[in-house]
Design a protein that fits this description.
binds coenzyme A; Aminopeptidase; single chain
Length: 184
């Protein structure tokens, strides 16, 4: 069973019983404002059921719950792209606002990066961050991701065009990284 300890809590697979805390923590406009529109808002019990059903019981899950005191309070995960982008993994994450600013994602992102490069045939991990999301950008920079590009006004959120910032860490960079976040 996959399980990565954090200073507070752990990363572990999603499981039945997470639905209630998932709704409680995910149903937040301040989270939704920084993620894709497919992330539901309002976040209903039905959304939680379908998320847990589709993410539990994989041998090597793509999504891991951020667990604090037994409660699922966030997610970190990735999707592998297809066609000529099939060696790319897009990483994404969210955390309950109750726990923002405590270094949880700063700790979780290198763990997930290790997990991906050690278990999946991927050559590039990238993240897309909406304009103004300074917290997410600093988490990525601290995990040694490089700020590669700004896709000007590429996204629309709340009827506003927003720049999208692209961050990436190549496998070759990951292998050579010397940073305490990666234990090297
Ligand atoms: C982005 C997010 C995952 C960061 O998680 P976190 O565990 O709070 O991150 P950390 O505490 O490790 O570090 C966050 C950094 O942002 C800062 N920060 C935290 N909350 C902030 C806020 N509301 N506004 C501005 N900065 C904030 C922290 O101080 C820290 O920066 P610093 O150490 O350089 O001062 C979390 O804020 C979140 O879930 N946001 C909504 C969803 C989202 O943006 N997902 C990512 C999409 S790319």
């Amino acid at each position: 069973m996959i399980n990565f300890p954090l200073s507070i809590g752990q990363l572990r697979p999603w499981r039945e019983g997470d639905e209630e805390s998932l709704v409680r923590h995910a149903n937040n406009r301040n989270i939704w404002n920084n993620v894709r529109d497919f992330f539901p808002y309002p976040y209903t019990p039905r959304d939680a059921t379908s998320w847990v059903r589709s993410n539990k019981s994989y041998q090597q899950p793509n999504n891991l719950a951020i667990d604090i005191d037994g409660q699922a309070v966030g997610n970190i995960g990735f999707t592998v792209k297809d066609d000529i982008y099939r060696y790319n993994a897009e990483i994404g994450y969210w955390l309950s606002e109750d726990f923002w600013g405590r270094g949880i994602l700063t700790e979780a992102l290198p763990i997930m990066t290790n997990y991906i490069y050690q278990n999946f045939q991927v050559n590039r991990i990238f993240a897309c961050v909406l304009e103004g999301n300074i917290g997410s950008m600093s988490v990525l920079e601290r995990a040694c991701y490089r700020h590669e590009a700004i896709h000007r006004k590429a996204a629309i959120k709340n009827n506003q065009y927003l720049d999208e910032h692209i961050f990436a860490l190549l496998r070759s960079e990951y292998e050579n990284v010397t940073h305490s976040a990666y234990g090297r």
